[in-house]
Amino acid sequence: MSSDTLVVSKNVKEYRCRKPQYSSYYQCIEDNYEMFERVYERKYQEKYGFLRPIVSKVIYQYLDCGILHNGFARVKCRVCKHEYLLAFSCKRRHFCPSCHAKRVAAFGEFACLQVLKNVPHRHFVFSIPKIIRIYFLFDRALLKELSKIAWEVLGLYYKNSVSKENITPAAISSIQTFGEFLGFNPHLHMLCADGCFGVNGIFYAAGPDINAGSLEPLFRHKILSMLKKKRKITEATIKLILSWHHSGFNVYCTERIYPRETKSMENLARYIIRASFSQDRLNYIREDSKVIYKSKKESETKEFDAIDFIASICSHIPNKNEQMVRYTGYYSNVCRGRRKRQGTCESDFVVEEDGYKSANKSWARLIKKIYEVDPLICPICKGQMRIIAFIEDYKVVKKILDYLGIYEFKRDRPPPKTLAVADSFDDYGRNDYIDYDYVDF
């Protein structure tokens, strides 16, 4: 994709270090998580399954995110020598709002600069009925099967639509497990090239019209067959679902998105890996331990008990090494790696030159892109700043903070944590989006 839309505004404001401990979301988690752990088995295990170890690890790391007492970097101006301290981040996906926002920005750039070709695309959404969602909640390995089946259905459709030999469809898919008010609603977003790639990268576009409803029967059949094979449902359940007027399966697709719509493409790439909730729509009433959460259009609200809210959020935390984003077909890691090794060039008269360049995933670059503030511009002289040291040793951290008179919020009983490492600000998307490659059908 063109890099025109990836230029960050030059009118950036002065950077101010965030203080997560003053946000409603942080306070809700910090106030109620220990109680949540104590009552989980009795109150939530039947609904959500056992409390996965990754949940506690992610939350404890989030509670340490952005807190100076847990370590920091020293940032110093090259000109006037002004310094400030920058707390380490937790880099937890799908739970920490700040760190996930950086991942979203990094992924948007990566997808547009290094994966998507300058051809028409469509956005597809594959949904499943409520009656079978519980199986995906209790067995998250089924989410991979959901992604694989949707790709098989869509890939077959495009191969049949183009009717050429030696062609490969292409897509980026992302699993989302949440609905409007954080209920468990597994569904799949796919950003798919609207056609297939042939030999030497020649792109053959599919017809301009597509009936997404025609994909639903095959998608439904494959999902139900997969669940039956894995002994999650019986033939009686399948007959029940098929007897309904509306089975609950749905395939939705948008109009074509053309290569010139670069801003729309990057926004869509970011949208498909968005977080399960928005801090802007959350209001924590500390005195009552209640959370008021607004709908996307703010036309509706839902009131949660704080512990119930945490339980809902935790159900969307991915397991360790669980991949939520997959690159398939012509966009797969295998195919992209093969083209890179072979130095394959696409035909100029079919696929426009992409002008790829490495996406800059540095901490400062992402902060500047998301918030339009530059953390490496000195607030005193406007000179260039740089990170000169990472401070991790607790005694050194305490000595510096005491010297500066910084007595920041610190929990009386901090949970166990791993020490931050020197690359805490580097490469937010390095491992999260490497995935299985589905090339064949």
Structural description of this entry:
The chain has 441 residues and is an alpha+beta fold. It folds into two domains: 4-94 and 364-404, no CATH class; 118-276 and 316-353. It has 13 helices and 15 strands. Strands 9-4-6-5-13 form a five-stranded antiparallel β-sheet, with helices on one face. A three-stranded antiparallel β-sheet has the order 3-2-15. Helix 6 (141-162) runs antiparallel to helix 7. The two termini are 27 Å apart.
Topology:
Elements: E1 13-14, H1 24-43, H2 45-48, H3 53-64, E2 72-77, E3 83-87, H4 97-115, E4 121-127, H5 130-138, H6 141-162, E5 170-178, E6 184-193, E7 195-197, E8 203-205, H7 216-229, H8 235-243, E9 250-253, H9 262-271, E10 282-285, E11 290-294, E12 301-305, H10 306-314, E13 325-329, H11 333-342, H12 363-371, E14 373-374, E15 385-391, H13 394-404
Parallel strand pairs: 1-14
Antiparallel strand pairs: 2-3, 2-15, 4-6, 4-9, 5-6, 5-13, 7-8, 10-11, 11-12
Short description:
The chain is of the alpha+beta class.
Primary descriptors:
disordered C terminus; 17% strand; five-stranded antiparallel beta sheet; 15 strands; 36% helix; 2 domains; alpha+beta; three-stranded antiparallel beta sheet; 441 residues
Strand content: 15-25%
Q: Name the helix and strand elements from N-terminus to C-terminus, one letter apiece.
A: EHHHEEHEHHEEEEHHEHEEEHEHHEEH
Unreliable stretches (pLDDT < 50, length at least 5) are: 2-12, 345-361, 412-441
* Largest pleated sheet: 5 strands, antiparallel
Could you give the distance between the termini?
Answer: 27 Å
